[in-house]
Automatic annotation (TrEMBL):
Domain of life: Bacteria
Species of origin: Acinetobacter rudis CIP 110305
Protein name: Uncharacterized protein
Length: 30
């Protein structure tokens, strides 16, 4: 099973961005 590092990198980047936006929203709400 070989997955290009680019795909993993993009997926990780999107995941981290989503997490950051959620944290930011939580901080603004609470």
């Amino acid at each position: 099973m070989t997955v290009p590092l680019a795909i993993i990198k993009v997926f990780y980047l999107l995941k981290s961005v989503k997490h950051d936006s959620v944290e930011y929203t939580n901080n603004k709400v609470f």
